[in-house]
Specification:
A ten-stranded antiparallel β-sheet has the order 4-3-2-1-10-9-8-7-6-5, with no helix packed on it. It has one domain: Lipocalin (Beta Barrel), CATH 2.40.128.20. The longest helix has 16 residues. The protein has 151 residues and is mainly beta. It has one helix and ten strands. The chain is 11% helix and 60% strand.
Amino acid sequence: MKTLAAITCFSAALMAAGKPDFSGTWQLDAQKSDFGPLPVPSKYERVIEHSGAQVHVTTHQATGAGEQAIETRFRTDGEFVENHYKTGVARVSGRWDGGHLEVETRRELQGKLLTSLEVWTLSSDHRILTVKNHINTPNGPLDLVLSLRRQ
């Protein structure tokens, strides 16, 4: 009986080891990031609370248009969660692809569909979070890469 319990615990630990915990405060490394044609924000920080399948992200950013904080909640099991923003409602879902987390966002903006697929990858030392974001807009696709350092 003890052997079975030990094997079960060991198996659960191995499965969890393949799925990183993204919790923490993450600051933008602007020199290692690529915003494409968009202006680089003067401030960009993500505070991530990741517990099981639940993820809560608060993004603080400052641009020439001012500062804002955006809160997003989603699950990592593929279920979509509605998030309400000043610009409208977005449905957000996360799913695992090995050790990477794919975060899909669907929203209507000015009557047109806008989708985003972020791929979150954590460095082996857990200090750098790379977010590759492919956005489909009515004006064509846009690709961004954020390099975020754990604080």
